[in-house]
Amino acid sequence: MTQQIVLLSATIFGALSIIFGAFGAHALKKKLTLEQLTSFETGVKYQMYHAIVLLVVGFNFNQNLRNASLLFIIGTILFSFSIYGLVLSDAFGKKMKLLGPVTPIGGLCLLIGWVLLLINFL
Predict the structure, then answer these.
(1) What average pLDDT does the chain have?
(2) What is the span of the domain harbouring residue 59?
């Protein structure tokens, strides 16, 4: 894990969260139920939050932040993208249930990343 990978991940996650947020708010608004739209928005929010965190961590990157950065990247992919997959597959009638357990694993990765960040600060 390098500083460049962390910063590239941050910018990609940030840009995609804008795209997915607009897609959800406009293109999917008529296709998704309120519950599905809320879930989709949760994925977008968490993706953007962690894009911002990765920018901060990336600009202050050192080897002590390597594992936290890695967990933020993996966690964001598993958490947010599994939500997108679950919501979209459900909305189009072919729910991918195998993604269900992926979301909490992603959330756990994010949480551990935050704990490692805390330990680094202490």
Answers:
(1) 95
(2) 3-121
Tokens of 19: 């795209």
Start-to-end CA distance of the chain, whole Å, equals 22
For the question of whether the overall pTM of this predicted structure is more than 0.90, the answer is yes
d(CA 57, CA 109): 16
- HEC string for 33-73: CHHHHHHHHHHHHHHHHHHHHHHHHHHCCCHHHHHHHHHHH
How many structural domains compose the chain?
1
Radius of gyration (Cα) for the chain, nearest Å? Answer: 15
DSSP SS3 for 23: helix
Separation between Cα atoms, residue 95 and residue 85, nearest integer Å: 8
